[in-house]
Amino acid sequence: MSRSAFALLLIPVFFAACSQNNVTEDSSLQKYFDSAGVKGSFGFFDNGQGHFTIYNLPRFRDSLYQPAGTFDLVLSLIGIQTGIVKDDSAIGFQASIHRIGRDTVKKWVDSLGYGNKDLGHDDTAFWYDNHLKISSDEQLGLIKKLYFDQLPFFKRTQLVTRRMIPSEKNSNYELFYKSGQGIKEDGHAIGWVMGWVEENKHPYFFVLNLESPNPTADLPAAGLSVARGILTQWGFFQGKK
Fold first, then answer.
1. Judging by beta carbons within 10 Å of its beta carbon (0-12, 13-18, 19+), is residue 86 exposed, middle or buried?
2. Ramachandran sector of residue 18 (left: φ over 0; alpha: ψ -120 to 50; beta: rest)
3. Is-contact 179 70, C-beta < 8 A?
4. Given this model, what pLDDT does residue 87 score?
5. Are 93 and 85 in contact (CB under 8 A)?
6. Could you tell me which residues come within 8 angstroms of residue 233 by beta carbon, excluding any fewer than 6 positions away?
7. For residue range 143-157, what is the model confidence (pLDDT) as tens digits?
8. How far is residue 133's CA from residue 185's CA, in Å, rounded to a whole number?
9. Which terminus of the chain is more solvent-facing, meaning fewer CB atoms within 10 Å of its CB: N or C?
């Protein structure tokens, strides 16, 4: 493993490190959550302008939730870096803790400063058991750093991981997103949709966190619908950004 694995390069509290002059709170976005029958938060970062738009700031900034399937990004980064994952095929997001090793995953989680860094005692899927938790703010910082090769992994490792992320592309835009869903301690479904939309080579990053009292609700689908609604309202998907 490279020395960078042990370098203490923490994922910063992304939003909190910025000036409040660069932040807009937009309560009007609630209508998208209401239409989907969920509650949650939305964080958006315009990289070119260095500006945040946030819906439900306290939840975005201060609340931590299990990463669920979004932790596949970290497992894939570790798997590629250590040679367990050989290419950018779909097997990348199937890299398991058993193949990688719990100690190796723990070292990387600590090195990244990922969320609360609590792996609990489950050697299978601790990212689903409500021990490991992360904020939307930190998720936004992670996805931005992944895009710009700023995580403590080889550039190739980050490039291959980005190629694994589901995407849709046409002449106007590219949309990349990773989703996840789990169950909170109170039985509510918790979900994520996080990624970026790129137009004219300009990236815009977003993180959507959702919650529903219905444990069988399809939150990734609902989240993608909410994200599309918001981004469409803001003029995305037309190639004019």
1. exposed
2. beta
3. yes
4. 63
5. no
6. none
7. 999 999 999 999 999
8. 12
9. N
Judge whether 74 and 155 are in contact, CB under 8 Å: no
Tokens of 138: 């930190």
SS (H, E, C) 46-104: ECCCCEEEEECHHHHHHCEECCHHHHHHHHHHHHHHCCCCCCCCHHHHHCCHHHHCHHH
Task: Give the whole-angstrom CA distance, residue 141 versus residue 222.
Answer: 23
pLDDT tens across 93-137, in order?
Answer: 655 677 888 899 999 999 999 999 999 887 678 899 999 999 999
Reduce the DSSP state of residue 6 to 3 states and report it: helix
Cα(174)–Cα(106) distance, integer angstroms: 33
Query: If you compute the radius of gyration of the chain from its CA atoms, what whole number of angstroms results?
Result: 17
